Amino acid sequence: MITLRPNTIASSFAWTPAASLNDPTTRNPLAKPLTNTTYTVTGNLGRCQATDQITVRVAPYPRVDILTRDTVICYGTRIQLNSSFTGTEYRWSPTNSLFNTASLNPLAGPSQTTVYTLSVRDTLSGCPKTVTDSIRINVIPIIQVNAGRDTTIVPDQPLQLQAIISSGNQYSWSPGLGLSSTTILDPVVLLGDDVDSIIYRLRVSDQGGCYGEDDIKVRVYKGKPDILVPSAFTPNADGTNDIFRPITIGITQLQYFRIYNRWGQLLYSTSEQGKGWDGSYSGLKQASGTYVYMVQGTDFAGKTVFRKGTVVLIR
Asked: What burial class does residue 122 get, using C-beta atoms within 10 Å of its C-beta: 0-12 exposed, 13-18 middle, 19+ buried?
């Protein structure tokens, strides 16, 4: 928009063409041409008349177009953004999840739903106004999958897998060796003595094709059901042998696992398989020395397995 300002003493005016003027009869009309336009003004003062012209050249707006439309992706995947523009400079935002932001066609890998904006300017045409276009990428959250804790069984012991997932309704276990089903969440494993160990992978998918995966390793112990207990542990927080726990083989239920000091005081107790003692009592680290343990469980055939002994705590 521009105000036309003729230098004149005329008292009446007629501007042409009138289509892009707010008032073609005023001295200083507002002009909003869409293309280059030459305006002619005729001024009258009594019987005197004069004309003149002015050409208004229109600088086109910059142009921007993100060719990729709003879309949905799975967590952890990327999508190519494609765009075109007319101008002298452009800028993407936000940039923290874009790869190659200096390109018109960057890779986007957002971890959550994100709106990307491409801003364009043209500093040479005379119209530096910024124009923008945007795209929204909706991210389906990651499917959390926990196939279970690695475990040890004996030959011909049925093992019920109990995976935990955050979402999804399509299940695929592989390989299928020894599984009652490969397409349910909690199949039963049954392995013979011809297998030493096997790693099962669970993939959980949703209707959109997004998926999550996790593994579980099943070892086959060639002896009878048993409870194996280490003779020492070092709770020094180095990530190795920090927890004193029994290793259950062919045990379907743990009745108890208890730790006593030399005076017979109970320091720790659990009935949950996989849990163990960290060498402390009531938040206080216990001294190096010998401690007594008792553990009892039931094997898959219903027989009781009991073990009692000592463990050395080393600091």
From this structure: buried
- Domain formed by 226-313, architecture: Sandwich (2.60)
292 alpha carbon, distance to own chain's centre: 47
pLDDT digits (tens, 9 = 90+) for 13-52: 999 999 999 999 999 999 999 889 999 999 999 889 999 9
Cβ 54 vs Cβ 21: under 8 Å: no
pLDDT digits (tens, 9 = 90+) for 155-183: 999 999 999 999 999 999 999 999 999 99
Tokens of 288: 């190096």
**Domains 63-140 and 226-313 agree in fold:** yes
Quote the tokens at residue 58: 């229109």
- 314: which DSSP letter? -
CATH classification for the domain delimited by 145-220, as one of 3.30.300.10, 3.30.310.250, 2.60.40.1930, 2.60.40.10: 2.60.40.10
| Cβ partners under 8 Å of residue 19, min gap 6 | none
